[in-house]
Amino acid sequence: MPDYAIERIEARILDIPTVRPHKLSFGTIQRQSPVIVQVFLRGGAMGFGEAATIGGASWNEESPESILHAVDHCLGPALMGQDGARFEALLARMDRACRGNLFAKAAVEMALIDAVARARGLPAWQLLGGKLHDRLPLGWTLASGHVEQDVREAHDLLDRGLHAFFKIKIGARAPADDVAHVCEIARAMQGRAPLTVDVNQAWDGATARQHLPALVDAGVRLIEQPVARWNVAALQQLSMQLAGGLVMADESVCTPFEAMALAAGRACSVFSLKVAKHGGLLRTREVAAIARAADIGWYGGTMLETSIGSAASAHVFATLPGANHGCELFGPQLLVEDVVAHPMPREGGALLLPDGPGFGLEVDVRQLDRFDRRRARPVLVDMGARA
Ligand SMILES: O=C(O)C[C@H]1C=CC(=O)O1
Ligand SMILES: [Mn+2]
């Protein structure tokens, strides 16, 4: 039996520019700052984990800096010397050492699962229940803020068979302007691909009730987090009101307890699942189980992770039964450069699950060093290098 005792945990922040500005309701991002965790086991195995958030501490309470602090000062010390293969026991230990901080816990749990899976020569999905899917329809987010650019981007990605559907980010402008923006894109897409909008909590209940029907009429099928995360009553009303459109919870559904409350209140039709906000791969499965029991569909969400966090997410999504609406694990394509030798394969608008030990990736440590925030010099990148 290999020695799985946890010997060392290292974490660092990377700063990687995006291929174009990415506009969301709460601001515009031009770089991502994922926290990369490495767990070293006494027997020699090592695994990678990642927690990315968006816009510093704008998406929720955690930021790259708070995640790094939690891993270095709370979670890492709590796990030293423990059996790295006892995932549930380690999650309980992390919960005792540190309240909340779900993104940080997710990054550590991810690295543990990767390390143990690699030590056993198994793909991570094998430790997560076995895979049901080899591929998932892959979405892309249109968030340049410009109709012409968004439409050009969408047609090009469809023509090249890289993506199957699109999400439009709104909520930064006046609601009527957002509606006009989405309607223009929908018209120009001529029904070539399904559309989602993500309001990222920007509207109150009355604004959402007034403006969402026009988006559904324009052909938008999924309505993601139109109101504040606490506003479950408004989600409930919208779910009843919007025939033809499905309300999807994102920021509202993090813990299994929140999932249970949304399910009990029939507040949405779909959960956007994200490994980081649920606190890891195992908790993602718990939230998905509640969705299934409540006849709620799932969607494979992203926090715009590099290939490390994206592949880990793909491994757990691949194990999930129930109705799914595809995934949006396009983070690596939004970043100017990747941190792995070979990106996850895509084909016919779908993401193919990377098989092979752990998350099935060959991480390029030179790239981690190159984008490491602790480097003194800024990184020079060739902006034309990525599609
Ligand atoms: O869904 C979010 O709230 C965050 C994220 C996912 C895709 C994207 O463009 O932003
Ligand atoms: Mn969202």
3D architecture notes:
The structure is a single chain. The termini are far apart. The chain folds into two domains: 6-121 and 365-371, 2-Layer Sandwich (Enolase-like, domain 1); 127-352, Alpha-Beta Barrel (TIM Barrel), CATH 3.20.20. The chain is built from 13 helices and 16 strands. The protein is 37% helix and 20% strand. It has 387 residues and is of the alpha/beta class. Helix 1 crosses helix 3 (102-120). Belongs to the mandelate racemase/muconate lactonizing enzyme family. The active site is at 169 (proton acceptor), 328 (proton donor). It comes from Ottowia testudinis. InterPro entries: Chloromuconate_cycloisomerase, Enolase-like_C_sf, Enolase-like_N, Enolase_C-like, Mandel_Rmase/mucon_lact_enz_CS, Mandelate_racemase_C, Mandelate_racemase_N_dom.
Compact description:
This protein has 387 residues and is of the alpha/beta class.
Key terms:
alpha/beta; 387 residues; 13 helices; three-stranded antiparallel beta sheet; binds manganese (II) ion; metal-binding; binds [(2S)-5-oxo-2,5-dihydrofuran-2-yl]acetic acid; eight-stranded parallel beta sheet; TIM Barrel; Enolase-like, domain 1
Write down how many β-strands occur, each being a DSSP E stretch of 2 or more residues.
Answer: 16
CATH fold naming of the largest domain: TIM Barrel
The small molecules bound here are: [(2S)-5-oxo-2,5-dihydrofuran-2-yl]acetic acid, manganese (II) ion
The CATH class label of the largest domain is Alpha Beta
Total domain modules: 2
Structural class: alpha/beta
What's the N-to-C terminus distance? 45 Å
- Shape-level CATH architecture of the largest domain: Alpha-Beta Barrel
CATH superfamily of the largest domain: Enolase-like C-terminal domain
Largest sheet: 8 strands, parallel
| Uncertain runs | 383-387
H/E topology pattern: EEEEEHHHEEHEHEHEHEHEHHEHEHEEH
- Taken as a percent bin, the fraction of beta residues is 15-25%
Radius of gyration: 20 Å
